[in-house]
Amino acid sequence: MTSSSPHRIADLIRSARREAGLSQSELAKRVGSKQSVVSRWETGADEPRLSTLVRVLGACGLSLSLMVEEQDSVDRSQIRQQLAQTPDQRLASVVNLSRLRATARRVE
Question: N- or C-end of the chain: fewer Cβ atoms within 10 A?
Answer without folding.
Answer: C
